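Milestone M4 deliverable, item 7.
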Amino acid sequence: MTELVASPFGTRQTVVTDTAGARQDQSRELAETQVKYLMAQQFPRDVVRNMDNILNAFTRLTLAEQSQYQFSRGGSDISGPSIRAAEAMAQQWGNIEHGFRERSRGVDATGVPFSEVEAFCVDLESRTSKRLQFIVRHWRDTKSGGYKLKEERDIYELIANQAQRRVRACILAQIPGDVVDAAMQQANVTLNTKADVSPEGIQKIVTAFEQFGVTKEHVEKRIQRRLESIQPAQVVTLKRIYASLRDGMSAPGEWFEMEQPATTGESTTLKDIAKQASGKKAPKQAPQSNAPEFAPQQLIDLMRSRKDIDTLSADASMIGSLPEDDQQPALDVYNECLAALSA
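Output delivered:
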């Protein structure tokens, strides 16, 4: 009979914490889930009435203005239902539960904390679901690099911002495509018939774009006309662009001809060219405490006797130790000798 040697570490036992509060929470969640599915089966959606509710919802101008995003990719414009439009369709379609939850937190290999987040949309009537899991690093990029997020409010806003796009994708995966297309078509009809081309409406457009650094001139250059003569269809396009900028789907430079910041290049004026030329000839005039002191004429004679540029440049580094009145004559001699050796 084979006898097993006892492990020196003892028997591993997994202790599962099971408290009355935990059991109560599990029972409550299970009961709520069962009730949701039961009510969805008992009160199924009326697709005709729900479709009418969706179309009626997109006759509201405020919702129609926020219903679509638009961005440029590969030289073509791409548009689609926005987050607000997806939420409105889910509410009117009925028997749909959607949202996101933070599942866990951790720290990656670089020492930056992260959250594991899940976006979901569940059709309680057909018992189908769409779930997307993704990682959100607690990090905010800036032009100078970036930094870790420590405030819980900043972390939540970052997670919510990235999660809403996944929630939209989950909702659109559950709602039939023809329903979405009909809703977007109704939104376009509403915008075209109720587009505000009054001076007050035009001023609202200009004010809305100012937060992205877009001026009235930028808008007029895009629509190829003055804002006072803007057409309703162009108002619709600008509102889609604004929704895209607001949701972070695109950048202002993708839609408007933004001014490029001035770059430091070679000057083209004669004065700047002469200054650059003299700067190339004359070395940096910095006094050196350990340099030997020379009389002005002695340094000039020394530079005139040099036969190579390296030695001449070493002598010229002592010009800064001369009195101010004698520096310019010595500098002129240096330029003459440099020109002669370079020829």
